Write the structure tokens for this entry.
Amino acid sequence: MVSAGELSLPDWLTAMRDDDRNGETFPWETILLARLEEARGRLDRERAEAPGLCAELLARAPDSVSDAGAETVEPRFRTWGVCEELLRQSTLEENPFASSRLASLALAVTRGLDEQHDKPLVRDLEARVWASLGSARLRSGDLAGAGEALREGALRLVEGTGDLLVDACLLEFEAAVREAQGGLREAAGLLRQAQARYREIGETTLAERAAQARERVLRALNPS
């Protein structure tokens, strides 16, 4: 499975038997490989340029980023690398208002990315950004805003690649929303699903995080 931001050959191409190929390189395969290499090179350049562009964007952007303000983001900032970097900073930021600003900027940057990258991959990225924005809203006490972010993230998830990492991320976020709404039993079930998905893809640290959150919810549900 292709993860968000990753590029790889289709399974049916890499699994093709040597006796089917007869040592031949097909023209369409050469073209496909060239396009993948070009896309991978572009993504590497975007990621290398992202820290500097993010610093410049953050210096220019207002303290609060609205949908209208998103239209003022210049095209040169609208890259996968910039969005990833903003998302990374948002996830690590402890201040919920600063985290929300970073996620809002990341969301603004995603506009137009599907003109450069495959739409399902962009939807995965958007889903992750909405989850980060929603988590920031939840930490600042904005439960209604978190619910909106959950709905928007779920819509993107449906149109994504089916990446289990993205799915687990949204499940964790939904669990936090349900817990804040008082749905402890539902939250525990969602965290169990997130833990299973993390384990399936080998993300042991994230699986442990989901397990610890579930144990905390279960203790609240059944206090001794």
Remarks:
- The chain has a mean pLDDT of 85.
- The radius of gyration is 20 Å.
- The first helix runs from residue 11 to 14.
